[in-house]
Write a structure and sequence with these properties.
Length: about 230
């Protein structure tokens, strides 16, 4: 990229950040979580029609990406580099971003079922732990199980071959609506929930989709997954 092109690119990115409504949206996403278009519009104190234009500008400059899940559209920062740049700018202003505060009931927020897999704080931590341990590798929008993952999951009692042969997606990042971060969906997500129930790490509520993390589960999850 030549000097003139670099200057123009910098000006375009700076212009996208400079608008007060867009800067409020970006700061709201600094915690790494995703937020709905409606939430971001409310935070920026603008209408939905105006927000769509702002989202388009931010996406055009590579500052945010859009995730579609069901009827909802979520936005999050594109990568860590964007977050670092915003943090550096906030240092100049001597202000910090306001942290995200979920309003989900605590029982549902800790652990719950999301169709046939686990969601909530516990599930998000499990997702992050499996990626960090190298049991899962990203492949486009899905995950594949690594050789280490196959060996480790089989040792836990999960029949990986049977899981892989199911006529459905093996594993993917399912955006958690309370944590606004991904947990594991797909056949592997269902197998992990089945394992957690079988080992008594979580128990079902009779009249709710909330799951209770048991004392046995606290120790088991920490020992096996480090969460």
């Amino acid at each position: 990229m030549d000097v003139e092109a670099a200057d123009l690119s910098l000006a375009a990115v700076a212009g996208a950040i400079a608008d007060p409504a867009r800067s409020r949206m970006l700061c709201a996403l600094l915690d790494g979580r995703a937020r709905t278009a409606t939430e971001l519009a409310a935070l920026a104190d603008i209408g939905a029609s105006s927000a769509s234009g702002h989202f388009a500008r931010l996406r055009e400059q590579g500052l945010v990406e859009m995730l579609v899940q069901g009827r909802h559209r979520y936005y999050r920062l594109t990568n860590a580099q964007v977050a670092q740049a915003l943090e550096a700018l906030l240092l100049l202003t001597q202000h910090s971003a306001v942290p995200f505060k979920p309003n989900t009931p605590s029982a549902l927020r800790q652990a719950r079922t999301c169709y046939d897999h686990c969601a909530g704080e516990v599930a998000v931590k499990l997702h992050d732990a499996l990626l960090k341990a190298g049991w899962l590798n990203e492949q486009g929008k899905d995950y594949v199980i690594s050789e280490r993952g196959v060996e480790s999951l089989n040792a836990l009692g999960i029949d990986v071959d049977a899981v892989c042969q199911q006529r459905r997606r093996l594993a993917y990042a399912c955006l958690d609506w309370s944590e606004r971060a991904p947990h594991i969906g797909g056949a592997l997500g269902a197998a992990l929930l089945e394992l957690m129930l079988k080992r008594g790490w979580v128990s079902r509520h009779l009249d709710s989709r909330a799951l209770k993390l048991t004392a046995k589960g606290v120790g088991g999850m920490a020992k096996v997954f480090g969460v």
